[in-house]
Amino acid sequence: TAFQSSPNSNTNGTRGHIEPDSQRNSGDSVARATMSTGAEAPKPDGEDAASLRRHLDDLSRQRDAVETELAEIESRLTREHGVGLTEPALVDSEGYPLADVDIYAVRHLRSRAHELRNDYSALTGRIEPLLHRLHAAASVGLDQLTLSPPTTATPPTVLSEPPLAIVGQVDSGSPAAAAGLQPGDIVLRVGPLSGAPPRPPLTAIAEHLRSRIGRPVIFA
């Protein structure tokens, strides 16, 4: 699916949303895509689509925080110690600790980075069931969505790649509406960006949309 960005757009990357034309000073419509992250297992208490979306937004903020801290650790390792997240080893060819490296500080930072990578993987790995539920809600009616086991034997849709976003709202008359995007649509790609790890930050998606003002933007 392709739509053309408005030349009057102000595209801001905010946590949890992609918001082309987020400043409505020119009356332009807004197309929002709620970014989805790791989610807990569905609860059997009849949550509706709005509750799911709030849950996904909260988890999105958590995963963004993990990404931010991990990037800060990588920057500190490079800037302060001249090493990376995993390389080089902290001993020389004879097995002695490197004399010019703060071994304790590097090990502490690398250990924290390992914990964060595990957290990121756990959040990412628990999102797809909720995405499928939310997508189904948009197809059959949001008010009918319940988080209970399916009563039919129809297998769930299997995505060809990790999702990048799920559309939360499309305003009438917007470029996204003209392209046929609907609330609940799962977005796998925005231009060259995809949900495959490492997932791009929201700022990268916003920058891509800015760069395409007045030109087609490809959504898949």
Automatic annotation (TrEMBL):
Source taxon at top rank: Eukaryota
Entry keyword annotation includes ATP-binding: no
Limits of the PDZ domain: 166-190
GO cellular component: cytoplasm; nucleus
Every Nas2 N-terminal domain range: 57-136
Any one GO BP annotation for this protein: proteasome regulatory particle assembly
Bias type Polar residues, positions: 1-14
Gene3D superfamilies for this protein: 2.30.42.10, 6.10.140.1710
Coiled coil segments of this chain: 49-76
Region (Disordered): 1-49
PANTHER family: 26S PROTEASOME NON-ATPASE REGULATORY SUBUNIT 9
Record-stated family: Belongs to the proteasome subunit p27 family.
Full protein name: Nas2_N domain-containing protein
